[in-house]
# Entry
Amino acid sequence: REGFRDGVSCITMRGISTAQQGLPPVTVVVDGVQVAALDFINQGLVDIESIEVLRGPQGALYGAGAMAGAINITTAMPSDEMEGRLRVPGASGNDLRLQGVISGPLGDSENWSYRARASYRDFDGVVDNVRGDEVDFDEALQLGGRLLYEGDRLTADFRASFGAYEAGAIEQSRIPARPLSPNDSPFTARHAI
# Structure
């Protein structure tokens, strides 16, 4: 589910949720490598071979950050033959997406192959605040590449990725449009002693 701020995700598994600014209770592993943060969930998962959800404590395999479970994501390997695909889905709110993958041998080499992926989303939004501004807009770009060398005695797998993300938050629709003085606030602060 979406998190507390734009671009931030949290995962709830077995009733245990991510606390704001806290460690996630679920570990995300991509191709055998544990990712540092849950931000990977925000990426356009364009070129996925499989996703495995492991419920329950997984600390023996993945450490303390997996008390609720783990998510294993396996991406597709570079192929020996040229292949590619392009998707252009759309939806309401001028939601345009462009997703593409290309893979194949690198030149005439039998040992080198590559795989490249790109995902772009431009969403204007469907929720307006009281001023008429769209507040749930979303623009995201993800690029990734993988270079694989398979020799007689050595296999090397090189990967790189880039992501840029800009988004609004649906919670902005509840903020009053009129300017407030510090002493004039419609919000009530409550505390317990």
